[in-house]
């Protein structure tokens, strides 16, 4: 049996896990490590500490799929729709740009991380709080070590974290890149935008009288987007939460500040913009250092083979494009590459 480690529990990792399970069935043992406390990556969902039924998406807000992408990835979308993890977006989003004919849009009624959890069910083991810091080659396997000292040996390793985190890994990967300067330069050329997300949980008895459910903001110095989570998800009777995303420029200009200072500034700015809003019951601010891919890996190959024997491969939207379909495309490319290696392993 081939033991495979996937690093990260974002959408690419989840889809890859499910595809590998279907393709290879019982010939593989799938282990997932993630540095966070829960699944989702940039599709994370948080809960109101005083009301677990009230959730909010801090990262990805909804899904937009072109006619071509939906056709190519119908298997993935139908699985989510049939599992009631996705449904059509029906809320009013003010300021949204016009979309090409045939484009489909969806929301996750149970939160965006439910999409990830739907596919992670095919993993054999999932471990959170495992921050991978080094990968060393040991014969025909990889020795992977976490920040806390946990070690594991694997036949194949799949990296799905943002490229800058791949570049920070120690061990054999540094030796490989030192010998392949073109690969290293291409990895270093991948660029991300950064932004802050602010979530405000409100008393469920308060009714907001706005003409929109979500809104793109084009004339503000700080915020770029705001959404009422319950209304965005077609659930107007659910508890209230509002999510704000800052602009890319604000994120770049304030990257080195203390999170609490930024949170206080963002909350004060909300009060300036919406002075009639009540005080929130709970506030959460999150720094997305790697928010969206601005410059993907050259050629957008879907995945990158760092080493062939044993296989060490990286994937994710860093190697395609920064949207859900980019993650799905990368997952298919990763699965094809890994399945070839598994066949050779079995021989």
Q: What's the topology here?
A:
Layout lengths: L1 E6 L3 H14 L3 E7 L10 E4 L2 E7 L5 E3 L1 H6 L1 H9 L4 E2 L4 E2 L9 E4 L5 H8 L4 E4 L3 E7 L2 E6 L4 E4 L1 E4 L3 H5 L2 E2 H8 L1 H8 L2 E11 L12 E3 L6 E6 H4 L8 E6 L1 H6 L5 H15 L8 E14 L7 E5 L3 E5 L8 H23 L1
What does this structure look like?
This protein has 347 residues and is of the alpha/beta class. It has a domain at 2-45 and 106-189 and 297-346: FAD/NAD(P)-binding domain, CATH 3.50.50.60. It has eleven helices and 21 strands. The chain has helices spanning 11-24, 67-72, 74-82, 113-120, 163-167, 172-179, 181-188, 229-232, 248-253, 259-273, 324-346, and strands spanning 2-7, 28-34, 45-48, 51-57, 63-65, 87-88, 93-94, 104-107, 125-128, 132-138, 141-146, 151-154, 156-159, 170-171, 191-201, 214-216, 223-228, 241-246, 282-295, 303-307, 311-315. The strands form five sheets. The protein has a six-stranded mixed beta sheet, sandwiched between helices. The protein has a six-stranded mixed beta sheet with strand order 7-16-17-18-15-19. Helix 1 (11-24) runs parallel beside helix 4 (113-120) and helix 1 (11-24) runs parallel beside helix 11 (324-346). The longest helix has 23 residues, at 324-346. The radius of gyration is 21 Å and the shape is globular.
